[in-house]
Design a protein that fits this description.
- The protein has 15 helices and twelve strands.
- By secondary structure, the chain is α/β, with parallel strands linked by helices.
- Helix content is 42%, strand content 13%.
- A hairpin with a 2-residue loop joins strand 1 and strand 2 (16-22).
- The chain has a single domain, classed as Glycoside hydrolase, family 3, N-terminal domain (TIM Barrel), CATH 3.20.20.
- It has helices at 29-32, 40-48, 52-57, 71-79, 95-106, 136-142, 145-158, 188-204, 235-242, 244-251, 277-287, 302-305, 310-320, 332-346, 348-369, and strands at 7-13, 16-22, 60-62, 84-86, 114-117, 119-121, 124-125, 163-164, 208-214, 256-259, 293-296, 325-326.
Length: 372
């Protein structure tokens, strides 16, 4: 079964009507274009009853150490202070252990949690016994992008994982590009084609892909995890080249887009992409017409820490139009959750933004839960 293309619809959430994404589970791409098949009345009723504290929780994904779910993580999921978790290699040791861990995370959770991994292919595979065994470049060379993603999705689903932070839509276009080893190709059109195939493969295997790193890190020679990055391309160059793979990903129905932390002066001279309304709201949602969930890259990245602390970054993310703040530092989620909830209680405009994002995330969680 496949995750259907994203369709906007109005939902009452916390007393306000917001535009969210409807994500159904049809059997094929043909059915994917047929419209929403979700249980809208039930979703509206659940959404209207949800507290602001739980709405704020839907905007946070946390990281923890170890091969079993700590009590504080289970409590955060039970109380609705987080939407889910991101797992790393220290969390996963075998297929049997992974199933036990993901079952722990779901047991007693307020809502079906997002359980995320970086599963791009080749060496970038958090779940080593699942695919894609081929690197992105090998997939593109062999034309196996869709088949590899489908098989990988089934492997992740068997382990209880429902979100893959892949594929990479960045196109290495400068000497020494930081993401060169993780890209499908150095050709923009080929990457666009590969990304669309990969998205359809992940959807077919019933795992939600997160295309990254919007609006493109192909012009970076430093990874934003390690330092600040400025990409000095014109807006025309970005639209003509770097955005092409993201356009095809949206057309292929990607349910998530990961926004990066580089600075793009042609788009916003003051704010890095993940904190920029010009990038998220105006470009991704307005110009490209994207209605799905927007997630940040790791908020502990050096490129973020160079401009803001964790709490301020999270508030800026959400004001810019981001739906999920991804935390990869152990324990940092609580600072971010408290900052979002405090600001939502203080500022009615921010509160409306939290409700809008929470509704999008809830729709995705519900869709993924239906194919468990």
């Amino acid at each position: 079964m496949a995750l259907m293309n994203l369709r906007p619809r109005a939902v009452a959430f916390g007393g306000a009507a917001v535009l969210v994404v409807s994500v159904g589970i049809p059997l094929s791409d043909r059915e994917a274009g047929a419209g929403n098949r979700g249980s809208a009345p039930a979703q509206r009723a659940a959404a209207a009853a949800e507290s602001l504290s739980r709405q704020a929780g839907r905007l946070v994904v946390l990281r923890f150490a170890g091969t079993s779910a700590p009590a504080y993580v289970r409590e955060a999921l039970r109380e609705g202070r987080v939407a889910g978790v991101i797992l790393f290699r220290d969390n996963l040791k075998s297929p049997a252990q992974a199933k036990v861990l993901t079952a722990q995370l779901r047991q007693g959770s307020w809502s079906s949690p997002l359980i995320c991994v970086d599963q791009e292919g080749g060496e970038v595979r958090i779940v080593p016994w699942a695919g894609p065994a081929r690197s992105a470049a090998q997939q593109a060379a062999g034309g196996t992008e869709r088949a590899d993603a489908t098989a990988a999705a089934r492997g992740l689903r068997a382990a209880g994982i429902n979100v893959s932070l892949a594929p990479v839509a960045d196109v290495p276009s400068v000497p020494g590009a930081a993401l060169a080893s993780r890209a499908f190709s150095t050709d923009f059109a080929r990457v666009a084609e590969s990304v669309a195939k990969s998205v359809r493969g992940w959807r077919k295997g019933s795992v939600a892909p997160a295309v990254k790193h919007f609006p493109g890190l192909g012009g970076a020679t430093v990874n934003t995890d390690d330092g600040s990055v400025t990409i000095a391309r014109s807006a025309a160059q970005l639209r003509r080249r770097d955005l092409l793979p993201f356009r095809t990903a949206i057309a292929a129905g990607t349910p998530l887009v990961m926004v990066g932390h580089a600075l793009y002066p042609a788009l916003d001279r003051r704010r890095i992409a993940s904190q920029s309304k010009a990038v998220v709201e105006a470009l991704l949602r307005g110009e490209l017409g994207y209605r799905g969930v927007v997630i940040t890259d790791s908020t502990e990245a050096a490129a973020v820490q160079a401009v803001t602390g964790l709490a301020q970054a999270a508030v800026r993310n959400v004001r810019a139009g981001v739906d999920i703040v991804l935390t990869t530092g152990r324990g940092s989620y609580s600072k971010i959750y408290r900052a979002l909830l405090t600001e939502a209680r203080r500022d009615p405009v921010f509160r409306a933004r939290v409700r809008e994002s929470a509704a999008r995330v809830a729709a995705l969680q519900q869709a993924l839960a239906r194919v468990r």
